[in-house]
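FAQ: What does the model actually see?

It sees only this:
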Amino acid sequence: MRSATTGVDASRPPAKNQPRAAGALDRVIRALMGVAIVANVGYLAVLLLPGAPQPASVDIILTLTIEWFATAIFWIVAVQTRFARWDVTLAAIGITFNSLGETHYMLAMDETGYLPSPALADIGYLFYYPLTLAALVVLVRRQSRKATASVAFDSLIAVLGASAVLAVILSPLFEYAVTGGSFLEGAITAAYPLFDILLIAVIVAVSASPVLRMGPRWLFLVVGLLLFTGADIAYALLDYNDAYLGGTPLDVFWCAAVTFAAWWVIGVGQCEPQPRAKASMVRVLPIPALAVLAGLGVLVLGTQVTVPAVALVLAAATVALAAIPVMFRQAALARLIEGQEQVVERLKELDKSKSDIIGTVSHEMRTPLTSILGFLELVLDGSGGPIPGEAKDLLRVAERSARRLENLVGNMLMMARMEAGKAAPALAAVEVGPMLRRAALALRPLSASRGVGIDIDCDDLVIVEGDEGQLERVFTNVMENAVKFSPANGTVHVEVMVGVLHEGMRAVTITIADTGIGIPADELPRLFERFFRASTARENIVPGTGLGLSIVREIVQSHDGDIAVTSTVGEGTTFYITLPVSAATPTPSEPLAAQLAE
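And it is asked to produce this:
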């Protein structure tokens, strides 16, 4: 009993003037498929019944019903595709030969269910194999136009590994074909396992390829062909040992194989092609790797028992070929790593050049800016004589723009120094309270112009070890942002809390809270990135470059501190800057975590 193959995901739709005929054929296919499935289930149930073997007529009727109903399905599908699909047509011819051979076997077998070979049934069976293989080759060829050499190589490894294992299993049959019986009997005996090996090799090759797309029912065809070849191999080995008996569950395997193949071919003309993203999820087994393991297993087995020479050759070829892509991939990987190292070095050079350019340009801009601001101050102070009110307003606008440019130049210089590793803090004892008040004093003109108050709550006994200039830059920057983002009559509250954090570390947390426009929660993680500006700042046209907070974080972290932020849009933003305190700072009885919670 034999199986069949194939089709594709979709075919040419029926002509518009033939909808009734197409519908009738579909109903016939469904009816035939239903009968075949029921017959398979009934056949298995009959063979599993306890007691004496069932009458041969039951075996014959059920087997031939399944075989010929499946054959009819293949031919109906061929008609639906108007014989334009050579894979379907070849498969239909092949299963017809298989059914003819099965019919002769059923009618000519003896009471034990056995028919000696050679027989007319062998003609049908042996024609089925090459026709099925041809159908598979046509189908694979249609689907493999985009296959790469790498895919073909992996498929070859899989084929050799599978063939090596089968050569070991089927070696008794090949030996008998050479040494026993007549030439014709030996040729027929050798042909069956050889065709089985070829069928399994094609299945394994297709399964090893990640680019072949055989449609959503491809698994049914694979199962059918594996059932078919498995039943053939089992039958051959049992027959070789004079142990085969008709009317056993083994007989159902051939019928089930035919039914699975028919179920798959029904998909031709009915199933829509699957999207490629879904199809890529199919066949995830590392079949080439399994083939290499199989080849190694055959070679190891050959050291313990006698193994056919052809099996050893196939196994050795599998392992040897598997080593070739590994060597090429290692060489390619080495070239890739070398190229990446060159790219990294080039990127480092470009980054250094960028930092040098930023530093040079910023430094060169500072001198003329200092002159511009100095002369503007002299003019605005009246050193050059009285200035009309309208001209004075214009000069103040120029001064504010120059101050903004000076701030940008300072930030760029600081960033360049940090990148070059030249901004390490010069540690000394720094009083936090006076430093915060100096920062607030420097921001008084800005806060007064915007009507924003700055409130500082700090004990002058709080001392940290740090670079006073850098830390003052940190608090000035954060407080300036708080003022800029607060509306008129808003408030910036600065509070200092000293306590003990985890693991006994003494620290001070400076909290800077404003009543401004706030920052969206999803943008908070990016707030300290260079050149990032919150959407609320852009929408309200608040000037800035997005460099200040990134520099703040770098300075705080270089002092072994930490900075965090919370914000609510429309209500305000709070920054928490934590720094280790000096031993000279008294420690309150209440832990810092509890103070923060309050």
